[in-house]
Amino acid sequence: MSALAGIDDWEQLWGVPNTSAAVITADGTVVETRGDQDHEFALASVTKLLTAYAVLVALEEEAFALSDAAGPEGATVEHLLAHTAGYGFDSGSAAVTRPGSRRIYSNQGIEVLAGHLTEVTGIDFGTYLIEAVLTPLGMTATSLPGSPAAGGRSTAADLAKFAAELLNPRLIDRQTLDEAVRVHFPGLSGILPGLGRFDPLDWGLGFERNFARPGHWAGTQISQQAFGHFGAGGTFLWADPDHGLACVCLSDRDFGDWSKQAWPPLTDAVIGGPG
User: Fold this and answer.
1) Where is each Beta-lactamase-related domain found (predicted)?
2) What is the pTM of this model?
3) Does residue 275 have a pLDDT over 50?
4) I need a labelling partner for 1 at 20 to 30 A (CA). Which of 7, 114, 147, 163 fits?
């Protein structure tokens, strides 16, 4: 029995019309797939991983630094990436608290960050993303027609290439990625939309770091060193360096109670191997 076999029941059990998934190993090999790997899905907040990676490239190119001022008064690029700049959740929201005091998951912060990159480089963010991340990785089916926080579109085949990059980086130095997945501003509590409060709510530079905790969307077998993101559109991507595995799962039913029931056993099966 394959690790991804449970997906076959999602349409009947949960009313999920289309799902595409892939499991990737540290050498970049796609060892298992389910569904049409070339079917295009809305990524929702999984888009943030691509945006964050473009920012990491810009940091290595010294277009700006983590400590540079960006966003509301007192905030920096680091605050924006780590959801601690003080903005509220929604696009267009104002700052609701001082930078560094709370972890408030914020689309607005990511959008402001993308705008900052455009301002300092003189390159439209969508173009920068293509040139810095998508083209080098051969992600020809991925696009950003909407918000840098939640407006990307892609396929499982394309995101498998990105997942391989997260396990074994080629576009950036390993040290840069290690810094990005380190917890920044540790100890801050907050609410992970759709799942509730985590204390602490750990985040790196664009990467969620709450894995292997009770009630988490990725189950219990994944390691605490894992990092990734899920999207409200019914999508997720995680990379687990301890297990040398990554998983991409894209669907076209919005995140909800079904995801909380379906995703944990799927990840547990991927980590545990075919049963």
Assistant:
1) 17-263
2) 0.97
3) no
4) 163
